[in-house]
Amino acid sequence: MTTTGPLQILIGVDEPMVSSLLADCPDVEIISHETLGTADTDETDPGRNTQKVAATLDALDPDCLLVTGPDSLDVAVVEAVRARGIPVVAYTDAAIDRLTTCEHISGYVRRDDGGADDRRRLLDELAWVTSQETRQQLRDSTDQVTMLHDATAELVGAETPEELYQSTVDVAANVLDFDTCYVGIVDGEYIVPKAVSTDTPDSGFRRMRIDEGLAGKTYQTKTSQLVHHIEEDSDAKPAQSSYRSGISVPIGSHGVFQAVSTHLDAFDERDRQLAELLIGHVAEILTRLRAESVVQTRQTKITRLHEGAMDLVAARSRAELFERTVTVAKTILDFDRTYIFAASGGEFVPVAKSAPPDAVDVGRLPLDYGAVGKTYRTGESRLTPDIHADADADPVGDIYGSGISVRIDDVGVFQAAARDTRQFDETDLELAELLISHVTATLKRIEAESGLRDERDRLAALFENIPDAAVTFEFDDDRPVVQRVNTMFEYVFGYPADEIVGANIDEYVVPPANDAEATTFNEKLQQGTSLRTSVRRQTATGVRDFLLHVVPVHLDQTNTSGYAIYTDVTEQRERERELRRQNERLDEFASIVSHDLRNPLTVATGYLDLVQETVDDPNLEPIDDALDQMARLIDDLLTLARKGQVVGETTTVDLQTATMDAWSHVETSDVELVVSLSEESTVDADYNRLIDLLQNLFRNAVEHGSTSNRTNWTESGDAVEHGSTADDDPETAKTTTVRVENTADGFAVEDDGPGIPAGDRESVFETGYSTSTDGTGFGLAIVRRIAEAHGWEVTVEAGSEGGARFEFSV
Hints:
By secondary structure, the chain is of the alpha+beta class.
């Protein structure tokens, strides 16, 4: 080993920056490690390589080895250096614990800009490391480094952060001879003491802010601090006034390690390096433990959260679900202050909370309020480490420092808050989102069940209140078994519900003669076909007629259940049967009229015509008129009997065309027709029956409105037969006018004849009613029958000029 002349410095890598930094230094001679011949190594014989390097090192006898980065030397060089106790200086921008040869580091210079300051610090470090005194100190500290290296195994064996903290101060005290030291870990905005060397119970280390004192500076800069005179350091704020010097080393991003002494200059660079070596291991182990703890805690919480989800699932209403949610958030996720806001009526309404007594009493909030509003609008969860530094946050009170916001579907927002800043991390947010995913799923289930309950209630109410007999049933081996009947079923059929429910309905209501019909109905229903048909069914009081409507639960597919509704039409069927019998009798009567009356009338008319051809007797004219009236009477009677209430297929009929057609078939003599119909006037009618209706109205106007048949009415409503007056003069006789016009909902036929007294306006539609000597009394009865057969309503009023006005609402 050289003791005079320039220092022989062996560099790990011949970097240009290192060479240029030390090239013009007369006190330094640089030797490249390639001189050792490691480029010509034999990978199959590592021992031979080590011997070759060792021989070269013996020949060169370097004063120091300079390493410039991780893995800068191969194994052969490291082993040779270790065997000879050659000091090692690290000049690098990497942390010392990143060097594979860190257990052999004697000196450490953090590389800055490679300038003059780096050169000065590096030369000072090389001079110090290679001095005889230092070499002796290094040799003396070899055992200490070895002990520190061995103690690492104890640190690695720590199972919890707390155990690691205590082991750290124990190693620092026992191996590095640091009498007073502590480990402070960051918790939010503070550095909190976690372990203090056992022989200094009254060390005075206290909780402090992360930007406070020497510990705060160390944590903020992530740089070790060596303080020879605490009272001269502006950043130092010692826990005890008796502390005079100290070391402060960052534990990664976790906290700070500090060692203090009551003596000045109690620590040197070597102590700092050893502390950094120790804390480097501690930081790595703590990172691992925390990662494992986070994973384990997260997994535990997820497991418990899934178990807690069972409690959420048990909720039967939104209010109950929200209360259970904040309880789960508190007991499983350790969120002390939680709130659920529901969006309602343009604002947020607090619907559930879990908070201590000192929590803010939050009221209603606008939908655009702070973080809760933004979370609801965007749907994105929010993690807010520092509420007061967040532009979107608008805390209701000043006591909260951090928080989480997660949207609950379209319903609202879940929030968790804490007093201090940085109390939540991404894991907390993930767990909160997992919780709310369970809440959302349960909420949808509650809403679906609520909807089903409401639907079932509505269907049950509808089923019960159907005005007809109703039954629900399910098929059991092709047997329709009753599940439920409504009250009307019990009333109509006479079977109590407790008797028929659970029984085969066909055995109760299907007459034996209709068994085949019921079987066919059941088969169609099971195939998904609905039925609507007339049936006869057995009741407790006998057989009755029903309109049966059977509906399967699912159309066009295989069914096992359905509904049946029975509309009792017994009375209607009886009326129909009676009407058929009446029509048969009426048809028989019409045949008699047509044959037995018309034939004699034809004979009489024929003989009268023969007499009138040979005899000119004015007394024969009344006989002729009587026979004509009898013929009209027979025609009207046949029309009333056979066609008055019969309407064939209806079409859209032009009312003006029908009016002119009907008018052309009526002897109108001195009656005038005025048509005041629009071009678009149409009605849906049987054309022939409409012609019959109009013809009868026109004949009525002719018969009652002509001069010879006109009847005057006194103010008391008594009829006075028109006698021979000036009105009999053809030149002065009054012409009757008939008008056909539109109304708001149909049409009207009006004349200006003598009119109809108000008391007789209903009677005119009765058969046989007539005030004319020539009338049959059937014309207006036929008008009403035809109108009713079309579904029209006919009324008679006074005309605008005193005559009769017939209005038809179609």
